[in-house]
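thread: overnight batch results

M.L. [08:02]
morning all. the overnight job finished for the chain we discussed friday. pasting input first so we're all looking at the same thing
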Amino acid sequence: MSSGTESRRVTIHDVARAAGVSRQTVSRALNDKGEIDDSTKQRVLDAALALRYRPSRFARGLVRQDTISVGLLIPDLLNPFFTEVAAAALEAARARGWHVVVYDTADSAEEELGTLRMVTSQVDAVVGYFTRPEAEIEQVARGLPVVLIDREDGTGRFSSIRIDGRDGVKAAISHLVESGHRRIGMLDHDARTEPSLRHTWFADAMAACGLGEGPVCRADQSVEGGEGALENLLTHHPDVTAVFTFNDIIAIGALRGARRLGRRVPRDLAVIGFDGVRLGTLVEPQLSSVALDIRRLGALAVEQAARLLTGSSPLGPDDLVTLAELRLRESA
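M.L. [08:03]
and the structure it wrote out:
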């Protein structure tokens, strides 16, 4: 066996690929279900033996379903968006009698890697937000089912829940333009080496409305970060009359920054966030946002992890998309 195979636990996917059958067929063969012919069963058993496949403790039935644990990795528990995702995942797992263990990676790539290494020996599946390369995640996960949230998987190894906010951002910019705004800026994520996908949606929406690319400032993922970034943006571009932000926390900071600068919202400055967290309804004025179905996002992650754990047919890419839509309130 090559060192590449030894670096991680062989999975049911590997056995299915080697035997040229589906995961369900592998499951039936290994559990002696009698629903497949003898030659197919023998081919599966030979492939499993050659790969030294060892079914997970869940698949072998060595633990009860109510002892199953899913590890949820999130960047920042202080951000209410991730808190709401975690709450939805906990609710979905609780309905199955499962447990979710939440890990805060402090939005740090190194912390994420160390947490993932620790988690793999304690849980049956991992879901969450990852920045590390797929090959590295695969090596550390060692065959555990992994569900990525808000990230495309270029390897085909993992399940990936995609967030599609293109139409929602386009609706937001169109609304601002229809309200008379022409100088629209953006407060983007400051921890990315390249502009975020949300910045791409913003730029495309601006172009679709016949506007040039608006000014962009990077913002730390906090209320204070949003406040400081807005002040920076308006210092260099005082003619900006509306801003779209990477997320609602930055937007709430922008609302505070606008007050400090004496700009009335939305008369002097319109603000639209992204995420749709409940906190947006508690600030003054209430925050307009390109809103996600956050409950569905957390539940979908657990649902896909359950399908991967049990060998059921996983949800396809079209079913693993969470759309965002403009939710207008008082800030725009």
